[in-house]
Amino acid sequence: MLNGSKTFITNGYSADLVVVAARTSPEKKAKGITLFAVETGMPGFQRGRKLDKVGQPESDTAELFFEDVRLPTENVIGEVDRGFVHMMERLPQERLGGALSNIAHAAQILSETIEYTKERTAFGQSIGSFQHNKFLLADLVTRVEVTQAYVDRCISKHAAGTLTAIDAAKAKWWSAEVQNEVLDSCVQLHGGYGYMTEYRAARAWMDARVTKIWAGSNEIMKELIGRDLGF
Predict the structure, then answer these.
(1) For residue 42, which phi and psi values (nearest 5 degrees)?
(2) Strands 76-77 and 61-69: what pairing?
(3) Phi-psi domain of 214 (left: phi exceeds 0; alpha: psi -120 through 50; beta: other)
(4) Distance between CA 205 and CA 109 in Å, rounded?
(5) What is the pTM of this model?
(6) DSSP state of 91
(7) pLDDT score for 167
(8) What is residue 63's three-state secondary structure?
(9) Of 39, 63, 67, 94, which residue is the catalytic one?
(10) Which residues of the chain carry a pLDDT beneath 70?
(11) How many CB atoms lie within 10 A of CB 123?
(12) How far apart are CA 92 and CA 127, in angstroms?
């Protein structure tokens, strides 16, 4: 029987099926985790409140509760007590997927911001033509393109089956950092309008903040990279 709770579950409020990692052999610690498919309607499976997030309103985030949920053998995903291994096998792909989304998000809003700075005028000239803004945009474009090049290299490695967990950790944290820096600057370049939710730059800025937290926080990514360096 499954007992416990989970929080910060993306689409947990609307999902018909959730994948739960549960301890089946606690004495084995990480080697005693199994993955289960838990379906809507199973006795003992309940959803809590829909959490009120800062951004990404298009997807719900919820609390999930499990009380004496009986799970048949066919609801085991993979092998018993190998759930952690199964998750680790797919974790680099998840983090690479996050990096792809991060840099694509930043690139699109930056492109829109560049057009905005060409059209918006102040003191008789476009705001993008002011030296500070021109230099800032040059910096942002370079950051995005260099990050995209690294992410592309990681995609090639993934396709070849050689992407490591460390490569993926670098791509995840760096792309999230660049994304947030770029979007914060985009808000600044929009001025007061950048703080209004009717503008895409404002909504993108709110949506992006969580990317430095989910799929393993940026601090955890750096910890993994540091361990790989021998520390």
Answers:
(1) -65, 130
(2) unpaired
(3) beta
(4) 9
(5) 0.92
(6) H
(7) 97
(8) strand
(9) 94
(10) none
(11) 6
(12) 41
